[in-house]
Amino acid sequence: MKILIIEDEPQLAQSISEYLSVENYLCELAATFAEATEKITLYDYDCILLDLMLPGGDGMKILEEIRRQQKQDGVIIISARDSYNDKIKGLQTGADDYLAKPFHLPELAARVYSVIRRRNFNNTNIIQQHELQIDLLARTVNINNKPVILTRKEFNLLLYFMGNANRVISKNALAEHLSGDLADMMNSYDFVYAHIKNLKKKLNEAGCDNYLKTVYGTGYKWEV
């Protein structure tokens, strides 16, 4: 799952990034209003952590822009502005949650997980599609009640497909999901093809039906 941390305090931003990376999230950083605005326009994220007081502008305007673009990114406001009015305005504008500073990183991680689970997986910890079962908390995959060992990227790729079931996902979107904004510097999608090939091979060899379809010239689609 891909997270954007919009926070101008370098030490806090780095602490959040390091903690969430251990929790198997791919984290990107934005420290200014302009940088954050550019990233939300160019890329999609599973969850955005949004500070309201940023160099160059008010974070609430970024939230308004996210919703104006009708993006589906989850948003958690993280702010020292802990007034009742700020919380109400943020939630009414479209934030999924509001966490006042200072906060404990485990609580932040729990809220990130909750937002992603609610938005992508109907608020459940267990995803079941016929013979395929995924436990989001344990990060395990079972096919016909037998475990399948996936790498971290393969597991995240599987979740990404299942969270976007029946939608065609472009090769560019997959590259961004796997590598973040580093995707812009890559000359080919070979690494995307390699991860998808390995994922499909492991699922098929374990007895999983072929839910992951290639849409030629466009990308891939997970069918349910």
From TrEMBL:
Keywords: DNA-binding, Phosphoprotein, Transcription, Transcription regulation, Two-component regulatory system. Residues 124-224 form the OmpR/PhoB-type domain. The keyword Transcription applies. It comes from the Bacteria. GO terms for molecular function: phosphorelay response regulator activity; transcription cis-regulatory region binding. Residues 2-116 form the Response regulatory domain. GO terms for cellular component: cytosol; protein-DNA complex. GO terms for biological process: regulation of DNA-templated transcription. The keyword DNA-binding applies. PROSITE patterns: OMPR_PHOB, RESPONSE_REGULATORY. Signal peptide: none annotated. The modification 4-aspartylphosphate is found at residue 51. This is Response regulator. It comes from Chitinophaga tropicalis.
